[in-house]
Amino acid sequence: MSFTSFEFFVFLLIFFAVYFLIPKKYQWIVTLLASYIFYVYASLPAALFLIFTTVSTFYTGVLMGKANEQYAKTLANGGDKLTREQKKLYKAENKDKKHQILTAALVANFGILAFLKYFNFFASSTNSLLDFLSIDTALPSLSLLLPLGISFYTFQSAGYVIDVYRGKVAPDKNIAKFALFVSYFPQIVQGPIGRYDELAGQLYAPHKFDYTRVKFGLQLALWGFFKKLVIADRAAIIVNTVFDNYLDYKGLTIFFTVLLYCFQIYCDFSGGIDVARGIAQVMGIELRKNFERPFFATSVADFWRRWHISLSEWTRDYIFYPLSLSHAFARLGRSSRKILGTYLGKLLPTFLAMLITFLVVGIWHGANWKYVAYGLYNGILIFMGILFEPFLSRVFTQDNAKINSFSWRFMKILGTLFLICIGRYFSRADDLMTALRMLKRTFSIFNPWVLSEGVFSQLGLNEKNLELLLVSILVLLVVDILQEKGYSLREKIAEQNIVFRWALYFTAIFAVLIFGVYGIDYVATDFIYMGF
Amino acid sequence: MEELLRILSDLRPDVDFTNNNKLIDDGVLDSFDIISLVGELSEQYDIEVGVENLLPENFNSAQAILALVQRLQDED
Questions:
Q1: Among residues 17-36 of chain B, which lie with CB inside 8 Å of chain A?
Q2: Interface list for A 138-167 with B (CB within 8 A)
């Protein structure tokens, strides 16, 4: 069920009604049932994978808990008779045991994800190589099922077992409750990727109906629908036209389209997240924020602290930190310090860890070389940012006082936006070669008069629709600027008088219903403008 | 503590480590600062900071960092 479908709307109505009418201690059960209904509606065979991950990670936690109990008992039995060496030995044994259990779980679950998501990519790349080497075999391309949300729920469950291993959380004792943690429907489609210590307690607890909280949740979801249906799906029309036929278009047209794509993907993704968080908020559950106004980022590193936050924080905590702090990397650091000197020597292992982390972020998005390029591009830029920022600040601001000035900050925002836009060529184009060709075309065919030529009103959206798109992006920018300054808009609205509030709600709802783009053949605005 | 403050200000001369106790919560130190800091601490105090120690409460202030260092020194 897509969030913007009629079935989902009905599903939600029924769900909320049941959720608030039944005794609160059964709310988690209803949510679990609803999550599985939601999931099976998408695909029944896929649910088997979901169940596999749920069961395997649950029992991994249980086994690790048992290992810990065993270790505690051994220590208690030995008491004072145990020497320090013996205690260390038992500690190491326990750690090894848990490590084996953890590795098995991670290999099994990530193995499934890797196979289902990346086998065909691996096969076709290998086949190209075999072809190049004139070797006459080929790997088959398989028709593989990709379970809904597999990248999200696998990462979330993996985070849980790693947290149990690290002693950060205690193993869950109830497999039904744990199944809810893995399958929770608002976040299974596109995240945010949750953490057990933040989410589980909330999911299992009872929640009462609180008018303000429910109202804020619905408003957040409405804002999400606005971003997705009015902005994203409308912008998509232009973006698709240009990307499907980029040879028909000149340099700056392509560039502005990619800029528009930045808005599209932001509105699509953050809109979906707002719907998810809004629904969760109605239920009394707070999901992690996934976006913090990414277009106000002052560097690529800052961008990734504001974009798809749950993913970048996951890779930071479960890939970047463990790698950088591992023995292997420490050794690498010591050797590189001898070869490259202290400053560069310290940076090399960090740079390598970061590159690997961003490779994972890139490839997480999809099985294609363009995503490998996307990941590496971002990783390299962040690292260059770290290396060059002090130098650039000194060059452009001449003294420390100006570092926080608005103009320098504004320049950094524009510069970052430009770099991110270039990155988007890689994530949106059909493949790596197309992305490179489009980039070349952008910079080699210069048409600075593109905005006055009216090209943009011939890309699938007529002028009225184009104006509507620009106005709604303006609304988005105003809202984001206010939020960046720290205003809580929902609270501010709640403070206004009743006439204003309801006028605003009705305007918003009608805007979504009338200006929403519901499928390629039905653009609701046409219906309005046709009548005149 | 002076030793620690010296290490911290070498790493980030722009930060006031004496008074700031929201180094992680406010995003003053980012992941690279943390990694560099951990590297320095391991060398300077001969401790091993594992990933499980990378919690906000251990790095939010110079006092917290010192407490972490002392705890890790005692453990072994």
A1: 27, 30-32, 34-36
A2: 166-167
Residue of A490, A512, A527, A524 lying closest to A224 (CA atoms)? A512
Cβ distance B39 to A346 less than 8 Å, yes or no, reads: yes
Residue numbers in A near B27 (CB within 8 A):
305
CA angle A78, A82, A83 (to 5 degrees): 170
Nearest C-alpha of chain B: how many angstroms from A352? 12
List for chain B the helix, strand, coil content (%; round to 5): 60, 0, 40
Please write the tens of the pLDDT for every residue from A264-312. 999 999 999 999 999 999 999 999 999 999 999 988 999 999 999 999 9
Contact A166 B52 (CB under 8 A): yes
Give the count of Cβ contacts less than 8 A between chain A and B.
Answer: 36
Cβ contact, residue pair A305, B51, below 8 Å: no
Question: What does the DSSP assignment read for A149-192?
Answer: THHHHHHHHHHHHHHHHTTSSPPP--HHHHHHHHH-HHHHTT-P
- Extract the tokens encoding A28: 């988690």
Contact A159, A314 (CB under 8 A): yes
Instruction: Give pLDDT tens digits for A402-414.
Output: 556 778 888 889 9
How far is it, in rounded angstroms, from Cα A28 to Cα A24? 8
Contacts with A344 (C-beta within 8 Å, 6 or more apart), sequence order: A336
Nearest residue of B to residue A316, measured between CA atoms: B31
Tracing tokens 């499980």 back to the chain, one arrives at B52
Report all structural domains of chain B as residue ranges with CATH numbers, in order of start: 2-75 (1.10.1200.10)
Please judge whether A305 and B27 are an interchain contact, meaning their C-beta atoms are less than 8 angstroms apart.
Answer: yes
Q: What is the pLDDT of residues A197-218, one digit of tens each?
A: 999 999 999 999 999 999 999 9
Cα A53–chain centre separation: 20
- Cα dihedral A204, A210, A215, A218 in deg (nearest 10): 20
User: Which residue in the set B31, B32, B51 is minimally distant from A166, CB to CB?
Assistant: B51
Closest-CA residue in chain B for A323? B51
* CA angle in degrees (0–180, nearest 5) for A286-A291-A295: 160
Distance from CA of A308 to the nearest CA of B (A): 16
First to last CA, chain B: 21
Going by C-beta distance under 8 Å and a sequence separation of 6 or more, which residues neighbour residue A387?
A: A347
Residue type at position A196: Y
The ipTM value here is: 0.89
Contacts of A333 in chain B (CB under 8 A): 39
- A107 CB-near residues (< 8 Å, 6+ apart): none
Q: Tokens 């489609």 map to which residue? A: A189
